[in-house]
Amino acid sequence: MDDKKLDNLLHEMKDDYEKLPEYTSTDNVMKSIVNQKRKISRGKIIPGLAIIAGLLLFMLISLPYVNDFDQADNDTNYLEMYYLKQKEEFREILGIESVDSFNVINQADVILEHYGSTTNPKEIEQAKADIDGLFTTPRQIMKEIVKENNPVKEETLEKLFINMRDLGYNLSDYWRNLLADYKITIDQQKLIIDTQDQPENYTGPEEIAEFLVMLKEQGFLVANSTDGRNDAMYLEMNYEWLVDNIENWNGHEGFRDYLGMLGNQVDSYIPGVGNRHGIPWTEFDEILLDLEKLLESYPKDREFLVHYTSIYSTMNKYLNDYLAGGVDTLSLAGEKHLDNAAQKELKRFVENHEESRFHAIVKDAVNKYENESDWVRERGIFHVDYGVLSILFDEHFREISFENIELVNRWPMSQFTFEQFHNYEAEKSQVFLEKLSAFEILSLYMYAHDNRDADLYSTLYSKESEWREEDKEKLMNVSEQEELEYYWREIINRSTHVIREVKDNENKVNYILLENPVSPVEVTASIQLVKEDGIWKVLDRTIE
Q1: Mapping DSSP to helix (H, G, I), strand (E, B) and coil, where does residue 224 land?
Q2: Which domain range does residue 461 map to?
Q3: Fewer beta carbons below 10 Å: N end or C end of the chain?
């Protein structure tokens, strides 16, 4: 029998199978065979054997269709049925009434829509794996970590952290609705907080008691604001649960130690003034120094910490509230003038912590308080951008100090460039350039390029620069209607910070433009200037 005839035969047999009643099972088929056997005469043994052989062949063909969910002829709905089964198991594990409002449901819909009614085995397995991932709980992931008893892998930590973060968002919404349904009072909230470590002792509504048990199992806890901004309780990760359950942190001790700090010292939800640990602002310096030590001790963990925690923005809030002398820098409520105790606290830091990367920041604030504001709080003094911290703690810029980092928030970069451009254009004297700083020359150089002033632009290059003649010729040969090869204004618009790197006894300086300096740092351009006959000139440039 050729392949074509065999295919036709199998197809006909499958058609016959599909005509069977919906709930026909293999057990019923076999019972039917046994009952019919008694009625078969000797003269029909051979045909009977043929029938049995055919039925066996039929069963081999039909087995794939009679597995999970007894899907039979509903195989095109297999993934949807699998999804519903996993969803229900997920709901039962959490012990809540419904998960229909959870984000994972929308994500599962995307998976079902993508794979549709596929019957491709590989696609089905991939879809099942994706669905399993959505309906996995933190406790299930933690069990796998404990079971392996090996150093925890970064991808496993990532999976656990993302899982807890996403589930926490969904559970928080459910929790708020639960509190509203039962009209939980302030006193009842206190009972929840006090008994959540032993939820079996909670004497309130049974549904809330069961929810507290689930939170404890899944690594969450109930927190309450102590800053007076709101009375509502909310959910957060139980960092002690993470630290206590994962025994082998080999290679990720920095992440472990940061989680430990979050449990009793650092508040990432309400950092700074009003933190839930009740730590006064005069001890924020210890928090900053401990965080600095952690980042210095575990450089390999920095990127992971930056990517999956808010370590820099948390550190930034503690720093700004400290520089403001114990005032919440988001609201600036309180006295405008720093009292003597606050002044002494900041000066003490400057005196005692010269080796700290925060030293230059606090020293700059003290100098501005003393020389510019008479110790009156001004936002410009204590509004340190968190991107500055990410640069200070980046290994690529280890030698860069605070005073050499600036925000890029205007075009041209220097506020004096417009006037200087017109004056230099009128005078065309190199003597005029002697008065300008390296930063002002850099800003003038960029502005002249974008204004297509080839003659003026070329005079800002060093005699040793390989770009001098080439760039001048390009500017001279491009018409007003043609686009330039690049525009410094566009590069500046993409950049958020510029750092100044001084070399060779301050006769050479590099300016490096950065785009959103959160690990990994992205460089948009770098320009090198040298001092030539007492005037800063551009030696080299690199545009990424």
Answers
A1: strand
A2: 407-543
A3: N
